[in-house]
Amino acid sequence: GLPAALATLPLELTVLYNSLLFAMGASNCAISGEAEGIHQGLLRVLEACGASGQDLSTEELWQKVLQEVTVEELQAPLHRLGALQGAWWLAANRLGSIIGLFRLLSNAEDAGRAPCSGGKNELLSLLKAWKVPAEGSSVSLVQSAEDLKEILCTAAAFLQGLQELEAGNLPAFLSLLQEAAGGFCSKRVLAQIYTCLGRCAQRMGKPQTALQHLKRALQVDFQCLPALSHAAAVYRELGETDAELQTLAVLYEALERSSPAAASTTPCSLIQTEHLVHTPALASLFRHRPPSEVKYLLAQRCLQDRRVAAAVEHYLDFLALLQDGLQQQVPLDGGSALPRIPEVFLEAASALEQAGRHQDAITVCEEVVSRTADLIPQTLEFEERPERPSPGTELASGPLSQKRESLCCLVWRTAAYLHQGWAQLQEGALKFLCPPSLRCLGDLLRVQLYGSGVETTESLLPEVKLLQKIRLLSLVGRGSQFLELGRHREALLDFQHGLQISPGDPAAASYLVQVLWELNRKQEAATRWQKLSESLSEEDERQERLGRPYPLYLLSCLKQASFPHNESLARNIQDYLRTTSQDLSS
User: Of all residues in the chain, what percent are helix, strand and coil, respectively (each to 5)?
Assistant: First the structure.
């Protein structure tokens, strides 16, 4: 409440500077918003000089103070507060305000010096050119203005570099991050900078350079675990699966051991670079991966690379984590690598089945069946997919999102039945004709499609297309068992039905040729065989063009349903065609 006095203002501004630094350091979080203390301090300066600025914004206050206050004793305290104001604005991403402020600070030092050129790099030029006034020997500061200048330079380069990354300007990002790497910062921030450089090199098609940056990040701070995650992605891009799996294993062990309280060694500064730099790009690059998510990635990559024994081990570990309450540990959002939990169960069942643990696979599938039993209505009706569905789109009798969720549950349950059928078959008896296969086909009849475009698969929802594929696999699997049992007519109906669902499917078409041949319908079999030979390359091109990979949990079923290469059948058909051709010519 005392009136401002020029004689005591240097001490008053110094106390304000120190108290604000302590407040920032104690919060240990990002600095944001206006610095009300600085605003009031500037008003006190104007009051002591006989001026007023009650109605001015903070930017206008700084302009008025630095242009009108020429008292030599106030220059150093004002410059310190200016650096503090710059930190506030940098944290708030107000780069234009910082540029304007440091233009004023520079002009206050040397009115004759020309301003720097425009653009984002102007901020770095102004910060580097800013001459910090000498501190008196009697002044006690908790953090020097020179120290704050170095932090501002590093943070400005880092922040602008991340903005260039978000804009897709990789060369500018690389230049600014290299500038930041040579600045004053903690080990944690330096490791983050090297990680960002590694990500940039990867996006620029330089994987080896990316690995060098990521290794450097880990050398600086092994607690920078996102560097390990990005390194695994680079190894995957290079096709070095062993190195990728080793990296993921190290990452999992490090996450298991790491403590949230563990912190990297940092300089003894109340304001640090990490307090000032926060962007969506940084949050995305350094998203926290829970150990459970890394465990799933290990399982998934092992299954994709056909390392079945390792995949089974990792999937069982992951399912154990589920029993321990994984739902509370893993954010199941778009940023997570985890699929929906029933899909994880189905992938585990696929791994168990491929490892020869058929009864375990059946048990895992039964869990999916039981959990989805009450979530599927008796009938689901769908039109062809709208071109641009809106949030309020209604199909048949309910909202699209609710119906699609029910459809997902139906996909998972029918896939579980399909796996159970194949697992029972592998147990040694011809059981594919028994309950799992029949229940799979029965469930599929719950989906009714209507609309003008349902005959073209491109117009259908992805879940419906997947159900059609599961139905095809069920029919081919059941038909192949009918064929093995000598029940050719039932097999013929299944293969014909399969081709109605998916015209041109190589497995169904090949099995149909075989059953026709065994039914002594040789001319029809030969004709279909010729068409099949011509269409195989076209079908491969069509699938490549559509680019619709099937879920990982279905790949083993696709492999089991494929038609085994039958040289004798092909030779018999070729002999038949040759004989027929000779008979016609004679």
Answer: 70, 0, 30
> Same domain for 104 and 232?
no
Look at residue 176 in the predicted model and tell me its pLDDT: 94
pLDDT digits (tens, 9 = 90+) for 355-395: 999 999 999 999 999 998 888 877 766 555 544 444 444 44
Range of the domain at 578: 339-384+401-584
The Cα angle at residue 437 between residues 432 and 440, in degrees rounded to 5: 165
> Which residues, listed in sequence order, are joined to residue 394 by a DSSP beta bridge?
399
Q: Are residues 362 and 217 in the same domain?
A: no
The pair of structure tokens assigned to 352 is 């168990």
pLDDT 10s digits, 566-580: 788 888 888 888 888
552 with 511, same domain: the answer is yes
Q: Strands, E, within 170-220: which ranges?
A: none
Q: In the numeric block, which tokens belong to residue 540?
A: 């491969």
Secondary structure string (H, E, C) spanning 263-311: CCCCCCCCCCHHHHCCCHHHHHHCCCCCHHHHHHHHHHHHHHCCCHHHH
By C-alpha distance, which of 281, 32, 275, 271 is closest to 161? Answer: 281
440 in Cβ contact with 414 (< 8 Å): yes
Question: How big is the chain by its Cα radius of gyration, in Å?
Answer: 34
* Pairing of β 447-449 and β 380-382: parallel
User: Where would I find the H helices in 73-120?
Assistant: 75-91, 95-109
User: To which residue do tokens 């944001």 refer?
Assistant: 32
Kindly give, in sequence order, each residue whose CB lies less than 8 Å from that of residue 36, ignoring residues fewer than 6 positions away. none
- Nearest to 471, CA basis, from 407, 527, 520, 411: 411
Angstrom distance (rounded) from CA 388 to CA 390 = 6
Among 380, 176, 355, 199, smallest CA distance to 286 is for 199
Is 90 exceeded by the pLDDT of residue 460?
no
Enclosing H/E stretch for 382: strand 380-382
**In terms of domains, do 348 and 456 share one?**
yes
| 153/64 same-domain check | no
